[in-house]
Design goal:
Order of helices and strands of chain A: EEEEEEEEEEE
Structural class of chain B: mainly beta
Number of helices of chain A: 0
Structural class of chain A: mainly beta
Distance between the termini of chain A: 36 Å
Radius of gyration of chain B: 13 Å
Largest sheet of chain A: 7 strands, mixed
Oligomer: heterodimer
Radius of gyration of chain A: 13 Å
């Protein structure tokens, strides 16, 4: 399986600010996703990060709030903009391997005060 | 809307027993099914995938799929305290595409 890293691993941010989360994979992957896991909840898909084009967002998530970049097949960023305490979550990137199995990065734990 | 349902638990089993975790899904066209284990404070770890009806065994883990009943389960034999975690069932309609997760079942294995 691919080795996935995320930066930062955690952060505490003030409301109204923005945070950019990076996801780096050690091999080229076609499909990359961003998920959110709110405290005590399961995972919810934010968007599919498309290489060279705009991300595909799920219902309830918009580009202005969660802009995503994917400049190549090994890297993506998710920005959480104009943060509020409700954005406090774990943000996870995932990639699809050669056998269609999906693997997750270690996550970014965000606390908004 | 595609849904995946799991009993939230906690499911408590004694050490050495078989833990049985269940999951149902709403989309009859679903093709791929996965079980993830998530320890507190960690990201989900893939432990089993299953794509066709029947059983698939890997060590102490057995995944069972019944597409007619839209039901997938995970059996953990000889449960150990280290198996205590939340188990997430995930389903996708198209191989390699996005996953829809169940709410997870918290498993507690008591020594």
């Amino acid at each position: 399986s691919a080795v996935i890293s995320q930066k930062p691993s955690r952060d505490i941010c003030q409301r109204g600010t923005s945070l950019t989360i990076q996801c780096q994979v050690d091999s080229q992957v076609t499909m990359m996703f961003w998920y959110r896991q709110q405290p005590g909840q399961s995972l919810t898909l934010i968007a599919t990060a498309n290489q060279g084009s705009e991300a595909t967002y799920e219902s309830g998530f918009v580009i202005d709030k969660f802009p995503i970049s994917r400049p190549n097949l090994t890297f993506s960023t998710l920005t959480v903009s104009n943060m509020s305490p409700e954005d406090s979550s774990i943000y996870l990137c995932s990639v699809v391997g050669s056998t269609y199995e999906q693997y997750f990065g270690p996550g970014t734990r965000l606390t908004v005060t | 809307q595609k849904e995946v349902e799991q009993n939230s638990g906690p499911l408590s089993v004694p050490e050495g027993a078989i833990a049985s975790l269940n999951c149902t899904y709403s989309d009859r066209g679903s093709q791929s099914f996965f079980w993830y284990r998530q320890y507190s404070g960690k990201s989900p770890e893939l432990i089993m995938s299953i794509y066709s009806n029947g059983d698939k065994e890997d060590g102490r883990f057995t995944a069972q799929l019944n597409k007619a009943s839209q039901y997938v389960s995970l059996l953990i034999r000889d449960s150990q305290p280290s198996d205590s975690a939340t188990y997430l069932c995930a389903v996708n309609f198209q191989p390699g595409n996005m996953l829809t997760f169940g709410g997870g079942t918290r498993l507690m294995v008591k020594p």
